[in-house]
Amino acid sequence: MWLLLAAASVLLLPGLMQRLSPPSLEVPGSRSAQAAAAIARGLPELGREQVLLAFSSASLHAGEPRFQQAMAATVDALAARPDIGALLPLPDTDGGDSRHAYVLAGVHGDELTRQRNLPGQLADARRAVRQASAGTVSVTIVGVSRAFAQLAHTDLADLRSMEAVTIPVAALLLVFGLGAVGAAAVPLVVGGAAITTATGALAAAATLAPVDSTMLTYTLTMSLGLGLDYTLLILLRHRQARRAGLPPAAAAARATATAGSTVAWCGAVIILTSCALLLVGVPWAHSLALAGMLAAFVTLAAALTLAPALLTLADRRLQWGRLPRLRPAAHTTRPPAWLRAAEHLMKRPGRYALAAVTVLLLAAAPALHLRLGLHYDRDAMAGTDIGAGLDRMERDGVAGLTALALPHPGHTDPVDTFALGRALHADPRVSVSTVLDNGKDLTVMLIAARPAPDSDAAADFQRDLHALAGRLLPAGQQVLATGPTARLTDLAHGTLEGLWRVLAAVLLASSALLLVVFRSLLIPLKALAMNLLCVCATFGLLTVVFQDLPGNGADVNVLLPLIVFTIVFGLSLDYEVFLVHRIAEHYRRDRDNTAAVLHGLRHTARPITLAAAIMAVTFGGLMFTRRLDFQQGGFAVAAAIVIDATVIRMVLVPSLMRLLGHRNWWLPGSRR
What we know:
CATH class of the domain at 338-369 and 519-667: Mainly Alpha
Protein name: Membrane transport protein MMPL domain-containing protein
Radius of gyration: 29 Å
Number of helices: 20
CATH architecture of the domain at 338-369 and 519-667: Up-down Bundle
Domain Membrane transport protein MMPL: 29-350, 427-667
Pfam family, one: MMPL
Distance between the termini: 45 Å
Organism: Nonomuraea mesophila
Shape: elongated
Structural class: alpha+beta
Number of strands: 10
Subcellular location: Cell membrane
Helix content: 55-70%
Strand content: 5-15%
CATH superfamily of the domain at 338-369 and 519-667: Multidrug efflux transporter AcrB transmembrane domain
Order of helices and strands: HHEHEEHEHHHHHHHEHHEHEEHEHHEHHH
């Protein structure tokens, strides 16, 4: 069955590469979306989005005949396309380069349609300008959609380079952790099957709905990490059963019945935390929710069906390629160092718990001055025509384009914008402003501003523009703004507003799940508190590395808290289930809390450490991409996993469970 799924998925892959789209930037119901809809309805020639054609020449000035001929040929070629509306040349600006010129273009269609039409528009524009100028003039299309479309092309190349680093490192960790090449091959095969099948599922889904590059990146990353982790847990239980004398098939069945139960709960946790992203009113968050649910479902299915089949079939080969230095040493009565450390922790749990909490709070402290922002990734666009076009526009003072929609009652006079226009003309941040009216019910002001659309200065200008409009336009006039800055601002606000809903949903759902799993009230509360500490410490480290260190100073991507919180919370709860499930098994059998905690540490320290190392490497591979948001996300998840597997899972959890004793398992109204 899995061979057939993998083969079908491979056949579907070329279709996915062709249909892959950039992540959605629109926020349904936001002010920018309302403005775009009003403009498309009232002045359809301006389209749903306004972009700029940026012309440039190294040898010709914009006023020379050949330059003008090239512009005219490009305008004619694009005007013949049904997806292009009005084409309006922008006047020269003070301080602008005389070898540059700009034309505003209205683009028709919804977001997905505009993205799919963009390559054809760009090809027609380049062909026309090249033929008319003999290659002396160049043109590119600049807009927020084009900028993020460029990032989608960057993602595909980055995925290949990331996999080239992470998969070999993960394979080496498995070989050294398991002590044999044959044993390491089983998680790798299961992880590979999960990746292939999940990608095939995305390819099938892409025929019905848009699939973006961010969704693909996170699906592949989570499928690889979860596939390796879940299979590793079942493999180690299979080994234990084989050492107990069970035959291969029975050992695989025992491993699936015991470790498989833990894996099933872990997968349910990831699915629950991913579902919470659906509460955010941003399509981009919905893509990540589907990516997390798909990765968890596919890896769960592979771990519970493919892994036992492989363990049964390849039992004799699991010890192939065994590392000599990892063969069992001569018998000694002295317990290993890590077990002696665990026994020492059991004797002084209060001190260890206090030290662990202190370390986490110190790590979290820098997050108090965390700066969030949503910017174009200039480094990822370096060397591209869109990157060069953005730089030229900023130097020429037409970096930010805003369309101000001013609806008015039907068949009345246009909105009186004289006072607002005069104030904008006097504003040094504004380079161009003009007014259009449809003669019926809509007035539109087109404003070109000097600040880069993703800068703090542009956000300040947007706030000042709304304040000016409220003061200088007729009383009660509705003002709706769209454009790159307005769309980025609405996306950031929509994400941050949804963060609190996701936080509440994840806390409630995960606490209910842990309550059912462990039949305890304190264990879920303790787990949630420690996971919140882990997330705070992670953002503290993220602030130091990407914001505070000399030479960095970058804002943390405003979308990152949503991603990191859901992924880290889900993985942290996974490790909580790994450890506490073993402790609970022993406690319910012997009713000795201290012995149960030691038993849990003895049997989960190795799988948790190895699984965390593999997951950290998998997400750490995102740091080898060119996109800053992927680098920040990869670092944050990898750092959180390391913190969770060391400070929290190996120190804080056992210490608190030792201190709480039998109260760990208290549940009001429950019978013994």
